[in-house]
Amino acid sequence: FLGAGGGNDIQWCFSQVKGAVDDDVAEADIISTVEFNHSGELLATGDKGGRVVIFQQEQENKTQSHSRGEYNVYSTFQSHEPEFDYLKSLEIEEKINKIRWLPQKNAAQFLLSTNDKTIKLWKISERDKRPEGYNLKEEDGRYRDPTTVTTLRVPVFRPMDLMVEASPRRIFANAHTYHINSISINSDYETYLSADDLRINLWHLEITDRSFNIVDIKPANMEELTEVITAAEFHPNSCSTFVYSSSKGTIRLCDMRASALCDRHSKLFEEPEDPSNRSFFSEIISSISDVKFSHSGRYMMTRDYLSVKIWDLNMENRPVETYQVHEYLRSKLCSLYENDCIFDKFECCWNGSDRQVEFLSLIVMTGSYNNFFRMFDRNTKRDVTLEASRENNKPRTVLKPRKVCASGKRKKDEISVDSLDFNKKILHTAWHPKENIIAVATTNNLYIFQDKMN
Amino acid sequence: MFVRGLKRKCFDGEEDIEGTLAGIKAIPSYNLQRQSLLDMSLVKLQLCHMLVEPNLCRSVLIANTVRQIQEEMTQDGTWQMINTQSTGQASLDRLVSTDILCRSSKDQAEGKHVPAYGTFNKDFESDQAQDSSETMSTASSVQAPRNLQSNVWEMESPQENKGNFQKSLDQIFETLENKSPNSVEDLFSEVDNSYYDLDTMLTGMMSNTKMGHCDSLETFSSPTNTASNSNCKSDLNDLDHIVEILVES
Description:
heterodimer, A: mainly beta, B: mainly alpha, two-stranded parallel sheet, 12 helices, 2 strands
């Protein structure tokens, strides 16, 4: 399992790719978030056009033990529409920033989706039966002439083609002045938080007309603003604990029991700056783009522009592990600043858990440029670079590790830094909660990879 | 900007200056690099998205970078603005008034003033006032001697903001104007041509809308034929181009 003890690294194979084939990317099709549900059966994507597409895994075919079920489109719906803020004369983008699934409680599935300003709770339910045999209506809905009714019958449910319906059950609006970057469902499964650049609000899933402000870092004078909130997440087990990260590379852990407004952190995680690497870009590249708790809640992982850091919640002054994602970019920061790539927000994720082993957060996955993504094994300290590309799209073809040549003579299969395509960035990745299946989003395509089953 | 030297690092190589000779040669280049980074940053803050609210995180990071540069330049003594400040309030924060730095070009065209930070000022005010009526924050008019035909900058202003905006505008223009014709040429003469080979490095990058920044930098250099023009004329040419870029016409 995952290199723990067995020592076998996972061999990833191409499984599927979803999305348009052509290189001309429609802006609305740009994938902006990817998330598996709690069982892994459903995989949701959000895009810049405000749509949510949910894929469902086929039930495993018992005879076909060589591969796990494929993911097929299950439901597509328009979650958010573009809006116009008349007060500021500005458009509000419909782009879906985040999707978070609720754990399943009944037959229906629920997810939260958010754009910059509004969070919506969607119910996705199946309908595979419908009533037939009404007395007063024909099958097509037209009313029957009552005089023609000579007998009475009891309507019965008959099977129909499966229909998946998505309906908005709650709309949580008008609570954010700034752009929402995170939503996180609490372990009590009743409340959730939403974070924008300067504030974090706490909601109850049933209540839409009220939210509690729990963090506010807006200065009295906006000219003094030097730091914003970049991500936030609830602790997986402790329902009063959450963390939020900042553009200055700090993470604050807050306890809601301490006070109503959690402006004072319980813990502040920050690594002292390395003076030898100091430049005008130091602050920008230290800005944290994502934070994720480990499954146990003992660790958390942060992603900044060049690295992934693992923090032990008991140690605030430095991370316990640091993994370099693309250190060869350090000498290119000026150009990356000029073309704005330095502001790209990469996400990161942990492995899921194997059936046989309890939840252990051992592997880190995150994206890079040129449609490369990286994995780091915490146990073996080995890392691998893989590519999401249609060239490798024969099922069960094992992905070949890629290598970037930072300097000097380029070896045969290596790619030089100067050849990297910075338009092809992998910002969003997700790992199936229970199996070794990963979803990797390029600009407008979703790749699904599985480990090689023997 | 990359400067030819032993180490082909972007100018985070300030730490690498070793030896007086190398130091002497490198320091002016470093200043120019720093200046161009400052200009690039100011342009970035100006060139905000037209219709959608600009990304606050990005604006804050860029503004912090600008402040960093200005602080360093102040310590170096290369920041000339300090001398021209008429009042004694030379706070570093005022050097770059982020209020006006981020404006959508659409609003500029309409003569409205809706800066990114300014919008939050309005939020702040509306938070306080608890009403939905908009109070437009505005900028002061630009001094006539600047010889700018952009009426865009001319607006009514609340008295207390007038000084700030005036200074901030002056500062922006001063900064961008900081290059004498010679230094503009020098700036780009020192540039390693392979900087523009970054085009190949950043394949396809330069061809998308982000190219705007690169374009504006090139515009700085292209018009001045330093050999033939008088100082005054080339100053005006520079200014026109600068204004063009800022106004995003």
